[in-house]
Amino acid sequence: MKKTALLSALIIAAWFSVQLSLDAHEPNELRWGGDAEGGAPYVFPDPKNPRQIVGYEVDLMNEIGRLLNRRAVFVQNQWDGLIPGLQRGNYDVAINGIEITDDRKQQVNFTIPYYATGEQLSVRVEENTINSLADLKGKTAGTLKYSLAQRILEREGGIRIRTYDGQINAYEDLANGRLDAVLMDWPIAIYYSKPNPRLKFAGPVIEQMKYGICVRRDNIELLKQIDRALLSLIKSGELRRIYEKWGLWNDETERVFAQITADSQKQGEALADYTQAVTRKLTWRERLKQYASYLPILLFQGAPMTLLISILGMTVAVAFGLALALMNLYGPRLVSWLAKAYVELFRGTPLLIQLYLIFYGLPNIGIKLSPLVAAVVGLGLNYAAYEAENYRAGIQSIPRGQMEAALSLGMTRGQSLRHVIVPQAMRLVIPPVTNDFISLFKDSSIVSVITMVELTKVYGQLASTYYDYIGVGILTAAIYFLMGLPFVRLARWAEARMATDKRVAVTAKRRWFGVGAKPVGG
Amino acid sequence: MNTLISVDNLQKNYGDATALRGISFNVEVSELTVIIGPSGCGKSTLLRCLNGLELFDSGRVMIGDITLELNNGATQRDLNTQLRHLREEVGMVFQSFNLFPHLTALENATLAPVVVKKVDRKTAEARARELLAKVGLGDRLDYYPSQLSGGQQQRAAIARALAMSPKVMLYDEPTSALDPGLVGEVLSIMRRLDDEGMTQVVVTHEMHFARDVADKVLVLADGELIESGSPDVIFTSPRDERTRTFLQRYL
Predict the structure, then answer these.
(1) Complex ipTM, two decimals?
(2) Domain range spanning residue A220?
(3) pLDDT tens digits for A82-128?
(4) Contacts of A139 (CB under 8 A, 6+ apart)
(5) Whether A404 and B98 lie within 8 Å, measured CB to CB
(6) For the segment A276-311, what is each residue's pLDDT rounded down to a tens digit?
(7) CATH at residue A151
(8) Is some CB atom of chain A closer than 8 A to the CB atom of B166?
(9) What fold does the segment set B3-98+168-250 form as a domain?
(10) A462, A466, A472, A473 alpha-carbon torsion, rounded to 10°
(11) Does B90 touch chain A if contact means CB atoms closer than 8 Å?
C-alpha cells in the first residue's frame, strides 16, 4: 500500500517536471526547429564534436537571436514534420532549407527570404551525355522526397524518379550506377557531390528557390521582429559573411538581397499583412473535393504497388519458409542448425535494418537490386522466418502415425512428406499464414525507405504537400483495410474448402457465395 | 511347407530396458499367426520390427528373399533402401487406422501404388476400387476418413495395405480402438483373406478369433517367446504358468 502510494507520487512528480520543462521555457529563448539529420551545410552535428550542432542556419539563428536579445535554442524535429511541429508549438520558428511555396504559405507565414539558390544536377564523372533535364528522358534520377527537385523532375516527365530520405544514399546510388543523375538543392550538391571524385556537376543551376523562416500565423509580432533582424543582417553584410564562411555565397542570393534592400523602404511591414491576405482556410466542401481528388492518386499510384509487393513478398516467404521448416525438422544436423539460426536471426532483427542492408549494403559486395526486387526479397526473407515456424508447428502437430503409415506403404521420407505430411500441415497453417499476410501487407509500407513508391509513400507525398496528415491518413488507412479484407475472406474460404471434414466445406462454400449458412446433416 | 518369415534371435533394447530378448520363430506361407500376451510384453514392438518401423539391436529378420540385419556395416542409405524394399512386401494395419485424412478412401488406396510402384493412376484406381468393394466399401469410395465409422476406416486401411500387393499382412491390434459392435466386420475380412491364402501376422486380444482362425499362436511375456504352437494346444493345455494366468483373464 505504502509502496503504491510512493510510486504514484513519483510518477505524478515526474509527469509534472516533464510538463514544466515543456511549457516553461524562458521567454527570452528563441526556440527554433530543424532536422540535424538533414546534413551539411544547413544544420548538422559537428564532425569534430558530434554533440555540437553547427551549420550556416545555426549561425544565422544565433545572429537573429542576438539582435532580438533572445537566446537561440535548437530543437530537433524530423524534416517532414517541421511545420506540424511548429503548429503544435514545439518551437517558435522552423528553419531548415524550407523553400517558400504557396502550399506552405497556406499553413504558416514566411519571413523575407534569407537565402536563394537552385537545383544542381550531378552525374558520374565519366558521364558526358547528360547536361540538362531534357537529357534525362528515359533515365533514372534520384532526389530527396517531397522536395522542389522532385516536383521539377515530375514536371519534366519521362524520367524514372527515385526519392530518398537522405542525400548520402542518393549520391551513393549515383556513384554505384543505380541512378543516372541526382538533382538536389545546390548547397547540398556543393557539400555532398562536389567533394566526391566519382561525381561531377552537369549544367548550370536549374530554377530558383528561396528559403524562408517559418513562423506560426498567429505570431505576427515575431514575424515582424525576424523580418527586421534579417533586413539588418542583409544590409550590414553580416549574412553575406556567414555564407562566404560556408562557401555558399552565390549570384542568386546576391540578387535577392539587392532586391530586398531596394524594396525595404516601400514594402516594410506590409509584408506580413500581405502574406496573411493570400492565405485562407478551406471550407468543408473544398476539403471534401480535395480528398476526392486524392483518391485516384492513392488508388492507382500507390495501391497496386503495395499489392504487388505484398503478394510477391508473401510468395517468397511461403516457399522459402516451407524449405526452412523441412530443413529444420528433417535435414542433417548442420542444415537443421543453419535453418534454426536463420529463423532466429531474421526474426530477431528489425525489418527496417534488413531492408537497408539489402538495398544499401549489398551494392558494396557487387549485388545491386532494383527497389522492387529489394523490397520483395527483404519482406520475403523476413517473413520466411515466421512462415518457417508456422510450418514447423503445423508439421509437428500431424500425428506420428501418419508418417509411419506412409513409410510402411514403402514411401521414402521425402515422398511421405510431400504426399502425406505437408498437405495436411498446409491446411493447419492457413489461419496463422493469413495473419502473417495481413501483417506483411501493412509492413510493406516500410519499403518506402528504399525509394519504393507505394501506398504509404504516396500518402507521405500528399500529406506533406497539403499539410493534412489526418484526413489523408484516414483515407490511406481505409484503403489498406479494404484491400486486406478480400484476403481474409479468401483464406477462410480456402481453409474450409480444404478442411478434411467435408461437411464443414459445404457450409463454407455457401458462406463465401453469400448464401446463408445452413447446417448440413451428414 | 514354405517359410516366408524367419526371425532369428531378435533383441531390442530401449536404453537400459530390454524389450525383446532373443526371439526366434518362423511363419509359413498362407499361415495366420496370432501373437498374444499381456500388455507391455513386446508384442507390438516385435510386429513393428518385422517391417522396420522399429529397428532392433541384434538378430535377423528374413522376409521372402530380403534379409534385414543391423550392425553389419551397411550405410544408412543402404539400410533405407532395404527397408523400402521390405515394406513394399509387407502390409501394415495400425490400431488407430492412420488413414490419410486429407484423401478419400479411394485416394488412400491409390496413393502408394502410384507414388511408390509408379503404377499409372487409372490402373491403380481400378485396383483400389476392386479392393474397397472387397472390404465392403464399394459405396464409400469418395468418403473422407472423418465421414467413415471406425470399422469402415479400418477396412479402408486394410484395402490401402492390400493395394500394394504385399506378401504378408501385419496387424497391430486392429480392433482395439473399435466399438465392440464393429469388431466383427474387421475380423471377418481377415478371415476371408486367410481363406484366400494370404499370410498374416496379427497382434490381438481377440482370443476367440485366435482360437478359431489362427494356424499358430505365439505367446509373449516380458519380451520372451514363452510358448508357441497350434491354438488347440495353447488354449487347452498350455505348458507355461504365465500363459495359463494370462488366458484365464481372457477366456
Answers:
(1) 0.94
(2) 21-114+212-281
(3) 888 888 888 999 999 998 988 888 889 999 999 999 999 999 999 88
(4) A130, A159, A160, A180, A181
(5) yes
(6) 544 456 677 777 887 888 888 888 878 899 999 999
(7) 3.40.190.10
(8) no
(9) Rossmann fold (3.40.50)
(10) 90
(11) yes
